Amino acid sequence: MFNRALNSTVAIGVRVEPELERRLDQLALSLGKSRSTCVREAIALYVERFSGGEEARRQSQLIRQQTGSTHWSEQIPDWTDWTA
After folding, report:
1. Is 82 part of any domain?
2. What's this model's pTM, rounded to 2 decimal places?
């Protein structure tokens, strides 16, 4: 049986298109990092960004800043000059 306490990382497999693999390899080379390091960092950023609703809060804050509104329903457009 595999004891994860003895190994701080686990291996996972991900299928990607050849072009994405080529671009990943080029990026890793330019950054002086391994492919695995780049993928690991990307996954960590993705999980951080989309877990816990943080991304939804971030986007809501951006909308609020751009519109000056405190709630999405207050952004009803003025259709009085709209023509079909």
Report:
1. no
2. 0.56
